[in-house]
Amino acid sequence: MKTKLEIASNWLPRYTGTSIDDFGDYILLTNFHNYVVSFSEQFGCDVKGEGRPMQTATNTHGLSIINFGMGSANAATIMDLLVAREPKGVLFLGKCGGLKQSTEIGHFLLPIAAIRGEGTSNDYMPKEVPALPSFKLHKFVSNKLVDFQLEYRTGVIYTTNRRVWEWDDQFKQYLAKLSAIGIDMETATIFIVGHANEISRGALLLVSDMPLIPEGIKTEELDKKVTEKYLDLHLKLGVDAMTEIEEKGEPIRHFRY
């Protein structure tokens, strides 16, 4: 195997237990196995890749969901491996920490950009290149949020490789200077690696905690409550948006900037 395509074509099935032809034209990405299970139950399709690093499910409408795990390295891996399938659009359904008082738990964030604090994306594009979603894909997602009459926010997400930082006052002061609306570990990587691989991409993030205040730091109990209350809605928004794109047949073109 000498080319990136040859490697990705071998590794995508190896990581997911799913053949390339079994993936749909449109992809939902998630960090959570229960999103894949809920998707499979909704559409009566099998979960593949149990015991593999990543699990998948695909419905009869040509929409797939992939649990790629947590963190920017895994986000880069799946966006690299997807070159073997050349999807028409990829939407990340992730969770994030709210950094503003206006971003309360349960709100949805539609990021207009992401700050590249994770470092992984530096292997794909120079640091000066902004991490941006595909506008047309986000247009469909925002339309769904409006259809459901949901309050949502737009703004810039800060993506970091640090998982345990909530104790670090100096880091929190740095976040305040950035004026980011939320913080996560994957969005900037997905945007940049998607751009490098010419994959149209977006993100719909659910605010799952408020990490700047002690009582808002995510715990197992809090995460369970958020999941029980919002998982189905989060998933439905992603499914409906990507299904509508497929049904309307509107191409989401990739533009180099």
Describe this structure in words.
- It is a single chain.
- The protein is of the alpha/beta class and 257 residues long.
- It has one domain (4-248): Nucleoside phosphorylase domain (Rossmann fold, 3-Layer(aba) Sandwich), CATH 3.40.50.1580.
- It has helices at residues 4-16, 33-43, 72-81, 135-147, 169-178, 187-196, 220-248, and strands spanning 26-30, 55-58, 63-67, 89-98, 108-117, 152-160, 182-184, 201-209.
- A five-stranded mixed β-barrel has the order 4-7-6-5-8.
Largest sheet: number of strands, sense, barrel closure: 5 strands, mixed, barrel
Give me the Rg, rounded.
17 Å
Instruction: Give the tally of structural domains.
Output: 1
The CATH architecture designation is 3-Layer(aba) Sandwich
Poorly predicted spans: none
How many helices does DSSP assign? 7
CATH homolog superfamily: Nucleoside phosphorylase domain
CATH topology category name: Rossmann fold
Total strands? 8
User: What overall form do the CA principal axes indicate?
Assistant: globular
Structural class computed from helices and strand pairing? alpha/beta
Order of helices and strands: HEHEEHEEHEHEHEH
Q: Give the strand line-up of the largest sheet.
A: 4-7-6-5-8
